[in-house]
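Hi everyone, sorry if this is the wrong subforum. Our group has a chain we'd like a structural model of before ordering constructs, and none of us has done structure prediction before. Sequence below.
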Amino acid sequence: MPTDLHVRMRLVSPTVGVLSLVLVTLIWGSTFVVVKEALDTIPVSLLLAVRFTLATLMLSWAKWDKRALVPALILGLLSFAGFATQTAGLAITSASNTAFITGLSVILTPIVAKLWLKHDLPARVFLAGFVALAGLALMTLRDGVEAINGGDILVLSTALAYAFYIVYLGEVAGKVRGTSLALMQHLPMTALAWLWAAPQVGKLATVPPLTYLAILYLAVVATALVSVVQIYAQRVVPAHLAALIFVLEPAFAAGFAAVLLGERLGPLGWLGGALMLFAMVIAELRWPVSPRPGRGGDLRTARRGR
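Answer:
Right subforum, don't worry. Here is the predicted structure as tokens:
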């Protein structure tokens, strides 16, 4: 990124920051439908390999930061785990289920921070967890126990992987150049994806052009562009407000799935989704507190890329 553009992005106003995060969240919501449709014509591993490769190329302008080597490796491994389980799960379950279950990372994040880094665990997290569990049960059991599938379980793993990602990103984001971290974490992601995709490389020739256009959107807009916009927008948007904006992601995803895929959650599904959204709000809504010296980055402003 040219220096003058880098400076201008550092000076974005809070209003532009908020609008940028809403746009980012809307784009994230659209990706569930785009991936769901693309998986009809390309294997999960190949989709991720091509997507990560394109995203890496789009971010190649970023400067290399030696301080980011270890953080980028760890974040890349966690991000790959999240993308792989989410995309594989999306091939089995609905886009709406995937979005809402992935959103549980908001509730899991403070729990992971408590167990891993011994951060304080607010009492509201227990209430949020109970409400989210009730919502998850309504959503996944609305058609009976037999309706639960492996995709739902895989996406639960996604939520856990993203929770670890968010916690660790909160610890390291302020210590290295953000754009360098955005680029460098994609290197292990790309390498792992191609290692997974190697046996199926021959299928690339059979992938239709529209699928490649979808992957281009995922890589350029939903991964590379969003990762940079998010980093700079969250520098000027209050932490609690950014977190509440991100809660809109599954709602946007369910809307796209209803309009474009004809998915219907039904009354119990929508009630479950509403409870899960409410749980996310409970987990993120808080009174402002004075920062404690010596603590790591704010988990409320950390967010995984797409």
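For your construct planning: Residues 107 and 283 are 6 Å apart (CA to CA). The chain has one domain: 3-284.
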